[in-house]
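Researcher: Next entry in the queue.
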Amino acid sequence: MINNKGFTLSEVLIASSILFIIIVTIIPINSLITSERHLLKERYDNTSQLYKELQTHVQGHNKDKQLPHVYKRTINKKIIEFKFEEQSNKMIKGCVEWVNVRETLEKTCLYGYR
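Model: Structure for this entry, 114 residues:
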């Protein structure tokens, strides 16, 4: 017999099946990581915007607006609702609500003293 030093059909099939399994597992993980990245970015942006809005209430720049105060804004093509209300002992509670990337209602609250 002549030794051709080439691949046999079984070696090619095994290598291609291993490659296929790797590709099939990486694609869903990549899409999950991408959606989680968008979710976390959206959560960070809205929480930081809430923090900025809460600082204006805590520092007294919005004295003309009585608490509870509710309004909506459009940020990154999403409608976001801000709610501010006064708690006991000069504490202000600020909450933000929005529909996230997964199409579920998400809410984050922060507190601050005057």
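Model: The helical segments are 9-58.
Researcher: Noted, moving on.
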